[in-house]
Write a structure and sequence with these properties.
five-stranded parallel beta sheet; alpha/beta; FAD/NAD(P)-binding domain; 26 strands; binds flavin-adenine dinucleotide; Enolase-like, domain 1
């Protein structure tokens, strides 16, 4: 059986490692668009920008691992078409036959055409090359404007402030991260950034971007323009599902896969940021744009390709590091359905706490701030019943597990 993987990111790298560790001896080809072997993206907005991590540390496997494992890693190679009937992937002029095909094409930053068209120094952050260019601009006294106060925007704001840049963040919503965290926790992040000197402007609409003598001038509705040496646009990502759509696979905010990460074509699978997965434990479809999901879905898809018949049930998990705040989150709060109650153990203002989100009689998500022992008890509680003990913040989290 030969396997082709399209996409050279975290999901792809973990899938091929799992194929080999499960004893698969057939051919494996990875078509990877970027000019690098698969690497982890979390350091791109943290250690690499701060200068505390080197790019080499981000690679998932050492470069010679692919040869040792007889994985044909083709970097700088774009898959341009899939023929589902003939089970062929087009890589430029070449056609490659597959028995199993994994689509792990990830996601790409949502563009802001008015910024792109301005000619101003506009940056996006997705790739290692993006990070190295961005790092050069985060210098002492540089004026940095960031559109979008999501995870990437805030992590870059943190790195930029720590490097001595002046930072303005423009966000349309009334609080950063509000859709994910709700008002109480979103306020913690707003306070954190303001305390570190970020000019965080919330509820702001960007009206236009101009280029003025090497600077970006960001015009906002009802407000003074922001002049910056560098403008980062960080307004989310879109799943890289065009290749799948062109081939006739069903896509809707990503490639639609069942609980086992299978598309309706029995030979084709998807994992990571591009997979819109029917999650059996959450009872809904989710497309998760996080490191942990890319790792575990990549591995899971590999096992299913080899014949395992297991649904992917792992709960979404993510983490962030900003200034001296580290946090981990597990679970899922559907932005439309929301939550009924929040239970806080510890002190949010001191940024040392654990938090549970409840809906109905269930615990739907949990998170800690700077309380690294909390993640295991949180994992044990999330998904379970919202008992009286869960709702009582005087009962230690560890006693709930
Ligand atoms: C700056 C940054 C910081 C992050 N920090 C965190 C964090 O702190 N915590 C967290 O949980 N998550 C974080 N994430 C998210 C996490 O990195 C992603 O969820 C993860 O990288 C997804 O992996 P993936 O393999 O699904 O996709 P990707 O990493 O996007 O990889 C897909 C690859 O496929 C390639 N590709 C696409 N189309 C084709 C094609 N047709 N042919 C060949 N190749 C193709 C792409 O070029 C890309 O290299 C961060 C992301 C970024 C960008």
């Amino acid at each position: 059986m030969n396997v082709v993987v399209v996409g050279g990111g975290l999901a792809a790298a973990n899938a091929v490692a799992e194929l080999r560790s499960q004893g698969h001896t057939g051919d494996i080809v990875v078509a990877a668009e970027e000019p690098h072997a698969p690497y982890e993206r979390p350091p791109l907005s943290k250690g690499i920008l701060l200068g505390s991590a080197e790019p080499d540390a981000a690679f998932v496997h050492p470069r010679d691992w692919y040869d040792e494992q007889q994985v044909d890693l083709r970097i700088g190679t774009v898959a341009t078409g899939i023929d589902l009937d003939r089970r062929r992937v087009r890589l430029g002029a070449e056609e490659l036959a597959y028995d199993r095909l994994l689509l792990a094409t990830g996601a790409t930053p949502r563009r802001l055409p008015m910024a792109d068209a301005s000619g101003a120094p506009v940056r996006y952050l997705r790739t290692l090359d993006d990070a190295l260019v961005l790092r050069d601009g985060l210098t002492e006294g540089a004026r940095v404007a960031i559109i979008g106060a999501g995870w990437i925007g805030l992590e870059v704001a943190s790195a930029a402030r720590q490097r001595g840049a002046e930072v303005t963040v423009l966000e349309a919503a009334p609080l950063p991260l509000r859709r994910v965290l709700g008002d109480e926790l979103a306020t913690v992040f707003a306070d954190l950034h303001r305390e570190h000197g970020v000019d965080l402007r919330l509820g702001v609409r960007v009206a236009g971007v101009e280029h003025d003598h090497g600077k970006a001038v960001v015009h906002v509705e009802d407000g003074r323009p922001v002049v910056a040496d560098l403008l980062l646009v960080a307004v989310g990502v879109t799943p890289a599902d065009a290749l799948a759509a062109q081939s006739g696979l069903a896509v809707d905010n990503g490639i639609l896969v069942d609980a086992r990460l299978r598309t309706p074509d029995p030979h084709v699978f998807a994992a990571g940021d591009v997979a819109h997965h029917d999650h059996p434990a959450l009872g809904t479809r989710v497309r998760v744009e996080h490191w942990d999901t890319a790792i575990h879905q990549g591995r899971h898809a590999a096992r299913v390709m080899l014949g395992a018949d297991e649904p992917y049930t792992r709960l979404p998990y993510f983490f962030t590091d900003q200034y001296d705040l580290g946090m981990e989150y597990v679970g899922h709060v559907d932005a439309a359905a929301g939550y009924d109650a929040l239970v806080v153990r510890g002190d949010l203002a001191a940024r040392h706490a654990s938090v549970l989100w409840l809906r109905g009689d269930r615990v739907i998500a949990g998170m800690h701030l700077n309380d690294w022992d909390a993640i295991d008890p949180l994992r044990a509680v999330v998904g379970g019943p919202a008992t009286d003990a869960v709702r009582d913040p005087s009962v230690p989290l560890a006693d709930l597990a």
